[in-house]
Amino acid sequence: MKLWVLRHGEAEARATSDAERRLTEHGREQVLRSAAQLLGQPLQAVLASPYVRAQQTAMLVCDALSFDKPLITVPWLTPESGADQVIAELDKLGLEHVLLVSHQPLVGTLVGMLEQGHRREPQPMGTATLAELEGDWPLAGLMTLRSLSHP
């Protein structure tokens, strides 16, 4: 399995709620630079948090890659979600090549947990940072971090 974990691009500092924060122009540019790292990858699905900035990030990536499958919005990719829940949901999907678009602290905890097997060393992930993991199963401690790209 190959799993890519992308943190959303830079978002505006304020909005009516955290979920409604939109990408800035700089954030859009960051996302497009990260999307370039995914060119030629055999993605089967793009899953994103329902928050506006993650939705915008995922749509920019899909457009840049000419990804022709629908974006899948899931409630278990919000900032408050747990890495354990994400791992369980990924296992249920049974897909081989997946991109997740989400937020800190979830993305750092998830990458650290998949690689290290615990939550004690979350991976630092700035806006639009893309992590590529590979392994036989999406289980804690059983995936290898192949690359970490910062825009």
UniProtKB/TrEMBL annotation:
Highest taxon in the source lineage: Bacteria
Source organism (scientific name): Pseudomonas laurentiana
Gene Ontology MF terms: protein histidine phosphatase activity
Protein name per the record: Phosphohistidine phosphatase SixA
Cited CDD domains: HP_PGM_like
Gene Ontology CC annotation, any one: cytoplasm
Pfam family, one: His_Phos_1
Transmembrane residue ranges: none
